[in-house]
Write a structure and sequence with these properties.
It is built from four helices and six strands, in the order αββββαβααβ. With about 120 residues, it is of the alpha+beta class. Strand 3 and strand 4 form a beta hairpin. It is elongated, with a radius of gyration of 22 Å. The mean pLDDT is about 85.
Length: about 120
C-alpha cells in the first residue's frame, strides 16, 4: 500500500494536468466552433439606427453594442424556432441573403439568437 501512495503522490500532478488539458481543449473547440443548434429563436434586443444601412444592437449589455447591417436586423424574425435550414432557405428565397454558420454562431454567442 505504501508504494501505491508514493506513486500516486508522484503522478497526481501529471494526472491533473492531463485532465485539465482535456477540458481546456474541449472549451477551446467549443469557442472556435461554428456549430449551431438545430433551431434558433430571435431574442429581444435594443436596436439603435445609426444611418439607413447600419445600427447598433444591444442584448446582454447596453455598454457593449454590436454594429450590424440593418439588412440583418430585418431577417431576424425568420428565426422563430423552425429548423435553421428552413429559416435560411426562406431568407434566401425572400430576401436574397445568405447567412453563414459563423455568423449564426456569432449572433448566438452575443444573445441575438438563442437555441429554442
Amino acid at each position: 500500500m505504501g508504494l501505491f501512495l508514493r506513486h500516486w503522490r508522484e503522478t497526481r500532478p501529471q494526472a491533473l494536468w492531463v485532465c485539465f488539458a482535456g477540458k481546456l481543449r474541449d472549451a477551446y473547440r467549443a469557442l472556435v466552433s461554428n456549430d449551431t443548434p438545430d433551431r434558433l429563436q430571435s431574442q429581444p434586443s435594443q436596436v439603435m439606427p445609426l444611418d439607413a444601412d447600419t445600427c447598433l444592437v444591444s442584448t446582454y449589455s447596453a455598454v457593449d453594442p454590436l454594429r450590424v447591417p440593418m439588412e440583418l436586423i430585418r431577417v431576424l424574425h425568420y428565426f422563430d424556432g423552425r429548423p435553421i435550414a428552413d429559416d435560411c432557405t426562406a431568407i434566401m428565397a425572400e430576401r436574397r441573403i445568405s447567412l453563414t454558420p459563423a455568423l449564426l454562431r456569432r449572433l448566438t454567442d452575443i444573445g441575438v439568437l438563442a437555441p429554442e
